[in-house]
Specification:
With 233 residues, the protein is an alpha+beta fold. The chain contains five helices and 13 strands. Helices cover 24% and strands 22% of the residues. Helix 3 runs parallel beside helix 4 (157-169). The protein binds zinc ion. Zinc ion binds at residues 196, 200, 202, 228, 230-231.
Length: 233
């Protein structure tokens, strides 16, 4: 188990830089530097090297913008990792936003992330924990968000997929109607965690070496792909 520390600094990006500096220091000097909070190292019984401690970032949420985007008090925007909620022109957008507001708006949250806290477009992406629990997972379990796994965002894949299976089994929210596969196949792009109808213009943009084909839409969602908002498979 990685140990956890808390920090009270306000800006998430400063914290990330601070954290990286700390990890670098550990790697090069082999010493533990406690800058903020307390870091605890434990050697495994089998003599394995210690796992670097994980730092958990705190922040206060100014407001929720969608089911998967929030603005922090520091004015930084943060996207939830591993999921996507309905976009503005998709069903349940308002309901999912309302639920996200009730979970995080005006509240103090804790954030964890994958290896990189930012995606290719420099957006901060994190797993968010609030009073009610793991927010990303709660939204998926209530049928208010899809699991959307990409190669860099798989840390909570098992938990999120289990939550999605539960939502679908109980026909919650976006799973109210049983998904019916009307297409012979569903091309998916694991890089972006999306799947499409074969006729979607986005399919042509998928590099052949990345293209994965699912037989049914259910298999695509079970693989952690979210439906493309354009072709809505
Ligand atoms: Zn599409």
């Amino acid at each position: 188990m990685p140990s956890i520390t808390q920090s009270k600094t306000n800006r998430f990006s400063d914290l990330i830089a601070d954290h990286r500096g700390l990890i670098g220091g550990i790697a090069t000097a082999g010493v533990v530097l406690a800058i903020v909070g307390v870091y605890v190292f434990s050697w495994g019984a089998d003599g394995e090297p210690p796992t670097p401690p994980e730092k958990v970032f705190n922040a206060k949420v100014k407001r929720a913008i969608s089911a998967h985007t929030i603005k922090l008090k520091s004015d930084e925007r943060l996207n939830y990792a591993g999921i996507r909620g309905p976009y503005k022109d998709e069903p349940l957008f308002e309901e999912a936003l309302r639920r996200n507001k009730s979970l995080v708006e005006g509240r103090r949250i804790r954030m964890r992330y994958d290896k990189e806290p930012k995606d290719g477009k420099d957006r901060v992406r994190a797993y968010v924990f609030a009073d009610e629990g793991f927010v990303n997972e709660i939204l998926v379990r209530e049928g208010l968000a899809y699991v959307r796994l990409t190669p860099g965002e798989r840390r909570f894949a098992t938990e999120l997929l289990a939550a999605q299976a539960e939502a679908r089994r109980n026909r919650r929210g976006i799973w109210k109607q049983k998904p019916v596969s009307t297409e012979p196949r569903y091309p998916a792009d694991p890089k972006y965690g999306n799947f499409h109808r074969p006729s979607c213009e986005e399919v042509a943009k998928i590099k052949p070496e990345r293209l994965v084909t699912h037989k049914t839409s259910r298999r695509a969602t079970d693989a952690g792909c979210a439906p493309c908002p354009k072709c809505r498979p």
